[in-house]
Amino acid sequence: MNDRLQQIIGQSGNPREARTGTQDDVVYAHIFDAILEQRLAPGTKLSEEALGEIFGVSRTIIRRALSRLAHEQVVLLRPNRGAVVAEPSLEEARQISFARRIVERAITELAVEHATGEQIANMKRLVKEEQACFDKGDRGSGIRLSGEFHLQLALMANNAPLLNFQRSLVSQTSLIIARYETGNRSHCSYDEHNQLIKAIEQRDKTRAVELMMHHLDHIDHKLNLQDDGASGDLHAVFSHLIKDRSKGAK
């Protein structure tokens, strides 16, 4: 049994995580939330045996849940080596950030057109809960609720393909933040979310899109997506020593 994996999966105390549905759905939802909350770090090995014991289900069910997560590109299935939480490269991170801007713009425009009063009220409650989590230092739950805000926004847009894209992009963004975030780890997303809700409620499409792009700028500015020259290639890292030794041998 992987004790660390069991601790990560079972850590969250959020009552809304009492999942319903098929066993596949329960396993999928818990792992998805653990990734979204950054309790499962990029590169974490997802042992089928450990997960089967944790959830009390067969490895077949675990494989189906992991396959769904792999389809959303947040889990990598490696032949003969098992599954791991995805580790987006710098180039992948840049592409995900670019794709999310396009999707979020379309979702925001549609949300302004289709949002109901009930959906807007639910979003306001969600943001209050998000703020409460950050205020009490529960960063993981705050990050998950921040991601859920964007998923609920996609539901308001009333477009199923965009919702599917968004689900993958939001979870991949969480992995990017976990791997590439630098500097101040404070979050003011709930303030920006409140402003966005207000613009949607006022049916101000131009303002809503402007706020969304500013919000994504804020996320991107906290990431280091520049090539810092680091390498896992020992020969590349110490190439200058190799060259110096070669010159000395002449």
From TrEMBL:
Keywords: DNA-binding, Transcription, Transcription regulation. GO terms for molecular function: DNA binding; DNA-binding transcription factor activity. SUPFAM superfamilies: GntR ligand-binding domain-like, Winged helix' DNA-binding domain. Residues 21-88 form the HTH gntR-type domain. Pfam families: FCD (PF07729), GntR (PF00392). InterPro entries: GntR_C, TF_FadR/GntR_C, Tscrpt_reg_HTH_GntR, WH-like_DNA-bd_sf, WH_DNA-bd_sf. Residues 1-20 are annotated as: Disordered. Residues 1-14 have a biased composition (Polar residues). This is GntR family transcriptional regulator. The lineage of its organism: Bacteria, Pseudomonadati, Pseudomonadota, Gammaproteobacteria, Oceanospirillales.
